[in-house]
Amino acid sequence: MFKTTNPHITAYHADLQDYDRLSLKHEGTVKIAFQHLLESVAKQQKWVLTQENTLKRGPKKNIRLDGVLFDTANLPRGYWEAKDVKDDLPKEVQKKIYKDKYPTDNIIFQTPARAILYQNGAEVLDVDLTVDANLVKVVNAFFNFQRPEYDRWDLAADEFKLKVPKLAEQLLLLIHDSADDAFQTAFGNFAEQCKQAINPNLSDAAIEEMLIQHLLTERIFRNIFKNPEFTKRNIIAREIEVVIETLTARSFNRDAFFDELKYFYKALEDVASTIDEYSYKQHFLNSVYEKFFQGFSVKIADTHGIVYTPQPIVNFMVKSVNEILEKEFGKKISSEGIHFLDPFVGTGNFIVRVMHEISKQSRMALNVTPWIQPHNSRGGDIT
What's the rounded Cα separation, in Å, for the pair 267 and 63? Predict the structure, then answer.
């Protein structure tokens, strides 16, 4: 628990005193003191405070938050919005919530003198921050807030890691034991396509691994992004489904086989339903896949370093490419004639970031050629 004797409080007051001595009163400066306080407590929780986060609130409307705190599963645990000392904080809060549609599940609206905390859509605290006990109270309430969906997710994720290896082995046995001509034909056709498109030396074992990954994770992609038709629109997923349909026609019942993972899938979907921002869902999906590979193929995950690229690094790499294009070729990512090939798109971090970099007017002119394979044979973002 955060206490009034905590050295971070002393540092917070020291920052404010320095700003006051220099007559710095504007939000851009005074908010840094509270930012440092949040960062210090977040580090103890193994959370990360990210700044200047943009959230979509409609086709033409975005909002920008001063801070969002993410946990180790890349879940947004809390939000922070700072205002000037001179601002009417309650009035600003009402504007942010009702006009700008700021999230209200766990958010602190703050000036150096006052903080208003919203949780579960309702105001729970409105305190004078010049009193240390109130500062402690609001910070503790903010960091201790826990949605029940997140509790269930933590338990389900641990259980999932334990069950995945056994289920993967059972699926492999089913594939090997399937002597049905229809399945063998479908598998052979898919294997030939993969060898032509990926690698002529691709082994049957690698292709079997793709089938197993798809079976174990198809529901995740279908439900987490509310896209029930992704297997029809995704060329690789569609071809995998052809093979799987022939396998399930005689060998086993798909729903019954995964009955013991229902708890995990439901917990995952409940958490995803609490996240409105598409990019945050993508961050969360990355952490889900890391857990999946830690259970599905521990040796491969270790030896190949399967880790999904953090969004700040993705942003840096995409902007770096854009800068090089401008400097060396006088073009931009959105320029006509610039082509992108993402042969193993993984969870789409890079290709989605590229698309965000492109203006709507330029998208028709850009030839983006992703080979959408969310369940590639080694996972991760291959760039």
Answer: 29
Q: CB of 219 within 8 A of CB of 230?
A: no
Structural domains counted in the chain: 3
Domain boundary at 246, 269, 302, which? 302
244 and 339, same domain (yes or no): no
State how far the Cα of 335 lies from the Cα of 362, in Å rounded to an integer.
Answer: 7
Do 295 and 154 share a structural domain?
Answer: yes
Give domain status of residue 56, yes or no: yes
Given a cut of 80, whether residue 62 has pLDDT beyond it is yes
- Model-level pTM? 0.62
What CA dihedral angle connects 276, 278, 282 and 288, to 10 degrees? Answer: 30
> Cβ atoms within 10 A of the Cβ of 122, count?
8
Per-residue burial over 21-38, b = 16 or more CB atoms within 10 Å of its CB, e = otherwise = eeeeeebeebbbbbbbbb
Banded pLDDT at 238 (limits 50, 70, 90): confident
pLDDT tens digits, one per residue of 130-145: 888 899 999 999 999 9
Phi then psi dihedrals of residue 46, to 5 deg: 65, 30
Separation CA 81–CA 58 (nearest Å): 20
* pLDDT tens-digit map of 84-126: 877 889 999 999 998 888 989 899 999 888 999 999 889 999 9
Tell me how far apart the alpha carbons of residues 188 and 243 are, in angstroms, rounded to a whole number.
Answer: 9
Q: Who contacts 74 (Cβ-Cβ below 8 Å, separation ≥6)?
A: 280, 283, 284, 286, 287
1 domain residue, yes or no? no
DSSP 321-335: HHHHIIIIIS--TTS
Residues with Cβ < 8 Å from 317, sequence gap 6 or more? 309, 350, 383
Question: What are the pLDDT digits (tens) for 366-383?
Answer: 444 443 344 443 344 433
Question: With contact defined as beta carbons under 8 Å apart, do 57 and 63 qualify?
Answer: yes
Residues 134, 157: one domain? no
